[in-house]
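Two proteins, back to back. First:
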Amino acid sequence: MIIPFEKYNGLGNDFIFIDGMNSPVELTVQQVAFLCDRHFGIGADGVIVVDPCQEADGYMRYINSDGTFAQMCGNGVRCFAKYLVDHGYVDSSRGTLVAQTLAGPKSITFEVDEHGEMTSATVEMGVPVLNPPAVPCLLPATRLADGSPAAVEVPLDTPWGVLRFTAVSMGNPHAVCFIDDFSQLPDGLFSNPEVKDLRGLRLDEIGRWVEGNQAFPEKANAEFACVGPDCISMRVYERGCGETLACGTGACATAVAAALTGRTERSTRVELKGGSLDIDWGADGIVHMTGPAAFSFSGTINL
């Protein structure tokens, strides 16, 4: 079976798009893994099937590179919006659209260039979920100022010592760990113990450990971050995928955790390996994420 595809990325977080608007598309776990394989397939962090939806402008069916479904993907939904606009499924003059996801509908405003192609988007990501059972996570709850339960900077015993995590769901579960002093971490956590910083962190090891820890019954995306004078720097290990250059929901979760712990205000910039996202956690409790989306290339592949 020969199928056409297009490749998009949001800050280097890359996705294979397959159009299911006019005919159904079904993929096996093995086919998804092949498509995402960077040596034998096209190579991507995930596959997005563009499906029709009566309640929205389109349904984003997001599949991780290991074949599992994800409720939400922040970079993916911006690319999804670009696909709808650039292919004429949404009139570029509208400036707004609604994408349906497993995490519910997402309202998106977008900007276009002189050719009517989308360049950037602001996504209404919703209200972050902090109540541990709803994230879900099994970390003990503390109490926020308003009395609501949340798992904020809860110590967790790891093979590298005690690290503190804040649990946040943005439609998918996240475990956020802020590192305030890299020098206090053990040498084994770094590729070069003489240079202890975020770039040298062995994220493949610690991220995999957090992802599968029993404290997170549905697994979790693991974010490790440090706060500077102008932004939050972050790396992310995505469940079902591994480290990616960027994660939109992870940036939102990290910004929320930073505000909860008093490290930043509720509006901040998050720097990821692939670029930056602007995150605003409004007074109404809704998180908005702003960032770019880009077309990479198109082609056909034999499945």
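And the second protein:
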Amino acid sequence: MKIGFVSPYAWDVPGGVQAHIRDLAHYYQNQGHAVSVLAPATDEGLITESFVVPAGRPVAIPYNGAVARVLFGPVAASRVRQWIATEEFDILHLHEPAIPSLSLLACSIAEGPMVGTFHVAAPRQKVAFAIAPLLEPVIEKLRARIAVSEVARETLRIHLDTDAVVIPNGIGANFFADAKPNPDWRKPRTIGFIGRFSEPRKGLGVLLEALPNIARIFPDVKVLIAGPGEGIEAMQSVNPALRNKLQFLGRINDDEKASFLKSLDLYVAPNTGGESFGIILAEAMAAGVPIVASNIPAFRHLLEEGKYGSLFENEDASSLAEAIIDLFKHDDKREGLSESGLERAQRFDWSQVSDEIMNVFMHARAPEEKVKLNSETRSWTRIFSREDEMT
């Protein structure tokens, strides 16, 4: 099968959506399918995958508590049109087709079998789909819709009054299970955090606020922090006497991330909101790391209300400290979470997730036909004014 994937976000900027597309594309390619990915790119030189077609430089816009780098407008539409016309895909898999970027353009431009995957979780008061009246006729062209979680599905139902089958994000479970710990990181009572810690919603501030209470009971505690951002700035909120308990690793690659997780006693996810799934939790479980996570809806669903990880009250540093102290005090609890997490992680392995997605593809392709251009697209793209262009 010839599969076209469209990423709405810059390919060379780390993100869960890009990682999902990349890993799924690799998996299908290894199974013998032909794949091509169209994506924005801030620097084409940073793209290492041969199947990625850069569509142009994105612009940064505030979105769902973060910054999204997206690409829209007539120039982007022309590149999408050329890509579709050249490739003749059997199926198009569009990610986040409800935001103004390449997936939305592809959905409007193409005809034929198309599947949309929706990742975002946005409450009604933070409407992500500001152009919903224009989106609905375009989204209706999708022959099937996937939501990565119940939270993402509910967001879709609220904003676009449509439904989706829930298929979670995928991981390579064995990749994390077989990783080796890094001796330089493997210390007694090591806590780990990964994320863009400059974004408040990732919750690093909550973890740092909880540190004094944790260190009072366990003075040997160590916190490893990975991800893009300025460690010096984050340090300012920490008591100078506790700063030696923090180690900032900067951005880490996939191999380093697997080793990072294997080096931990606990993985802490203090995110305060805006998450639709929590791929890092699935990866941590696959690595056998006990998890402490905020009780936001996405994490509650993923951890099944605390069955596969300890939950604490969102944005409550005291509650977080209590959960961490409790697990450090009780080895049996940590071991139980580690064992159950390893079993739970198999649900998210690509061997299962990719089959479920392929079943959706096959359903969308009946009756079978190639994806082709929509001759009426040009009039639709003119709906957007020059002020809305993102080229």
